[in-house]
Specification:
The structure is a single chain. The N and C termini lie far apart (41 Å). The chain has 8 helices and 7 strands. Helix 1 crosses helix 6 and helix 2 packs across helix 3. Strand 6 and strand 7 form a beta hairpin. It has a 7-stranded mixed sheet, with helices on both faces.
């Protein structure tokens, strides 16, 4: 494991403090690092999540400054969108008119099947326990609903992977120091990306949690992926699923 990454036990505290420090410049850094493409990626998440039938109740896990929640509402103005995050500094930056709550993604304070769709953006790799995080999201997702994960990947294959890693390990920390005033945070972010699951393994994890119709949409030459799956509907009379 990279020396830039915290231990599993220390990760929740580390992640909360780090995102709290960079909250004011987080959205600006995302826009600069992605050349503005992060907005388009969030629209892909919104379109995928809202493809679920009757997706009127949407949970944004790790909502941060609320950017994804806002896109969901722009796409479906009548939806009820709730954003949760355990970093108070990020929530303070988010618009006050959003429905927001402080909550741990590993212990979501909602009843089973409470939401028609669950979304997250650049969150899952920051969880101390990815398995538990997915378990909780599946638990609060209704039958027939869709779970959608936007995440960076360890990078494209072939010659582009070297360029990707050079950019992440050298350019991103420099931008972090110059723009956000926090080089250490923008050392953690690329290292956590490079250590995270390949999209295919994340898709397998969703299947292991019982999701079906699992899909992967690779974006930005494979540097980012939208992975989603549907919670099957249980047939009470036969015990089967659809």
């Amino acid at each position: 494991m990279s020396a830039a990454l915290p231990t599993v036990g220390d990760k929740p505290r580390y992640v909360a403090e780090m995102f709290g420090r960079i909250a004011a410049r987080y959205d600006l850094m995302n826009t600069i690092m992605t050349a503005g493409q992060d907005a388009a990626w969030r629209r892909v998440v919104a379109d995928t999540a809202l493809s679920a039938e009757r997706a009127a109740r949407v949970l944004d896990v790790g909502t941060g400054t609320g950017k994804l929640a806002q896109v969901i509402l722009e796409t479906a103005p009548g939806a009820r969108v709730v954003g949760v995050d355990f970093t108070f500094g990020m929530l303070r930056v988010a618009p006050r008119w959003l429905r927001l709550a402080a909550a741990d993604a590993l212990r979501l304070p909602f009843c089973d099947g409470a939401f028609d769709a669950i979304v997250s953006a650049f969150v899952v790799r920051n969880l101390a326990d990815v398995q538990q995080g997915v378990t909780e999201q599946v638990r609060v997702l209704r039958q027939g609903g869709r779970l959608v994960v936007l995440e960076t990947t360890p990078g494209p294959t072939g010659p582009l992977r070297l360029l990707y890693r050079l950019f992440f390990r050298h350019v991103v920390p420099l931008l972090g120091r110059l723009i956000a005033g926090d080089g250490s945070a923008y050392t953690y972010l690329p290292e956590s990306t490079l250590a995270f699951l390949e999209p295919g393994r994340l898709a397998d994890l969703l299947r292991q949690h019982g999701l079906v119709d699992v899909t992967i949409q690779q974006l930005a030459l494979g540097c980012v992926a939208v992975t989603s799956g549907r919670k099957p509907v249980m047939l009470a009379t036969t015990g089967g699923t659809i």
